[in-house]
Specification:
By secondary structure, this protein is of the alpha/beta class. It has 14 helices and 27 strands. Strands 2-1-11-10-12-13-14-15-16 form a 9-stranded mixed beta sheet, with helices on both faces. A 5-stranded mixed beta sheet has the order 4-3-5-6-7, with helices on both faces.
Length: 508
């Protein structure tokens, strides 16, 4: 394994240590611009000095509002050099949502990119009078246009943020986002565990087309630096650009969610995976067996993975090349991480029994910022209670089903939305589908399906029910079918089932 993963100097930033070891190695590629580790470190240190001049000190929470690009990466390492806490902001949040997170986190600084990001930042900052806001574009630090003077001394850092590298707010699929406090040690343990399971050679070229404000995107940057490999960064997910990059740029690894992989397969139009590709890390929720089978048949080296913001990304992954069935199963906990399955009473279940996935290990968050009761509830005696459903086999390998709140219990029978979606996804009229439960007076709940139709297709609910009955037990067949132009998703591509549930409740 790469030496830097084993011998880190806590007094130096990780980027600086990497630059000292392999200065000429490519660190990042953004479009046609390739930046070496020596160049990236020099740029990050220059930014760090500029931040210090504007009053950023160790322990400050510094929020970033940026498109994917080189400035994101420079600022990640500049903030580590200063000792400040990184708070990446979701670009999809409206100003009200951004302002909530800025206030909740106690952020003193908001750094943003140009154009739309500047407008978005200023609108959010209007609700945060003490916030210091300024623009950074192509390494240039703009003047402060709101907030405290750069000469104002920093407030004492919050004690629960001591040692934090990043404060990551969960995607909010179950309500208001909560700030997960993640230490440098958690990210380091995650990178080590991932490398032990999947390997992390310096020759890797990992495509980062997920948002860098998401734990999955951020982890790509950290893992690449620690391994001394190159992160190829796309401004956003564009299926055509991803296919071109995979085919022409020697990409060895890429992180997708299921919806992204589906669009890449469509764009590639049956072309086999390029020979350079050695790993497709597939997370963001269970993928259908049909999608996994189609991708595997085209040679995509799939590594289905289960991860959480609260665990610094990866928890368990099936190494590529393994062909156990089902393809969504066989996930091995990364090195140093323990996984068990518990019932509602907290009792550990035997292999083969479905229950709540619980996780323990050095990758876990310190807790949720400002929410001690919630932290104690979720970090139950050192075990993270994920709220997700899964099962372990006799070998300790994991298969993930649904969040417990997404599970549909109908007449005492469990219905897993992903299973129903997998069947409907094969119908010629359906491009995408999301299944949720709706209350039923006698059975407790019943499934309904929200469908994105193929172009020029029409929907016949009776015909769809008949199609489902061929492949599913009768109790799993949706009672109702609705059309929708696009499924609601988080920025990382996760399906927002609670929004579909709200839409269902609003239906007559």
């Amino acid at each position: 394994m790469n030496r830097l993963l084993e011998n880190l100097d806590p007094a130096k930033s990780w980027l600086r240590q990497r630059a000292e070891e392999t200065p000429a190695q490519d660190a990042i590629q953004v479009s046609d611009q390739v930046i070496s580790y020596a160049e990236l470190n020099e740029q990050a240190e220059r930014l760090a000095e500029g931040l210090r001049e504007r009053g950023v000190v160790k322990g400050d929470v510094v929020a970033l509002l940026f498109e994917n690009g080189a400035d994101c990466v420079r600022l990640l390492w500049a903030l580590q050099s200063v000792g400040a806490v990184l708070l990446p902001l979701n670009l999809r949040w409206v100003p009200r949502e951004l302002a909530h997170v800025l206030r909740d986190s106690g952020a003193r600084f908001l750094l943003h990119g140009p154009g739309d990001r500047a407008l978005q930042a200023r609108a959010a900052a209007s609700e945060c009078p003490a916030l210091c806001v300024f623009e950074i574009h192509d390494q240039r630090l703009g003047s402060v246009h709101k907030g405290v003077s750069h000469t104002e001394p920093s407030a004492d850092p919050r004690s629960d943020l001591e040692g934090a590298l990043a404060l990551l707010y969960t995607s909010g699929t179950t309500g208001k986002p909560k700030g997960a406090i993640l230490s440098a040690g958690a990210f380091l343990a995650s990178a080590k565990g991932s490398a032990a399971l999947l390997d992390a050679p310096p020759s890797d070229r990992w495509l980062a087309c997920m948002p860098l404000f998401h734990v999955g995107g951020l982890s790509v940057l950290i893992r690449s630096c620690l391994a001394g490999s190159c992160a190829v960064i796309h401004a956003h997910f564009d299926p055509a650009e991803v296919v071109r990059s995979l085919q022409e740029e020697g990409i060895t690894g890429v992180s997708f969610v299921a919806a992204m992989l589906e669009r890449v397969l469509i764009e590639a139009a049956g072309a086999t995976a390029p020979h350079s590709l050695r790993c497709v890390l597939l997370g963001g929720g269970p993928a259908s067996e049909d999608l996994l089978e189609r991708a595997a048949a085209l040679g995509y080296p799939l590594a289905p993975t289960y991860g959480l913001t609260e665990a610094a990304s990866q928890v368990a992954t099936r190494p590529p090349g393994e062909t156990n069935r089902p393809l969504s199963g066989g996930l091995r906990p990364i090195e140093g991480t323990e996984v068990c399955i518990r019932n509602a009473e907290g009792e550990r279940l035997k292999p083969g029994r479905v229950g709540e996935i619980c996780v323990r290990g050095p990758t876990l968050m310190k807790g949720y910022l400002g929410l001690p009761d919630e932290t104690v509830r979720v970090l139950d005696r050192g075990w993270l209670r994920t709220g997700d459903a899964g099962v372990l086999n006799e070998s300790g390998e994991l298969q993930v089903f649904e969040r417990r709140e997404d599970l549909i219990v109908s007449g005492g029978e469990n219905i897993y939305p992903a299973e129903v979606e997998s069947v409907l996804q094969n119908h010629v009229s359906i491009r995408e589908v999301g299944v949720v439960g709706t209350p039923h007076p006698e059975l407790g709940a019943r499934p309904v399906a929200w469908c994105v139709l193929e172009e020029s297709a029409s929907m016949d609910p009776a015909e769809l029910k008949a199609f489902c009955r061929v492949h599913l037990a009768a109790y799993k067949v949706p009672d109702s079918f609705f059309t929708i132009s696009a499924l609601p998703r988080t920025a990382s591509g996760k399906l927002l089932r609670r929004e579909l549930r709200s839409r269902t409740q609003a239906e007559p």
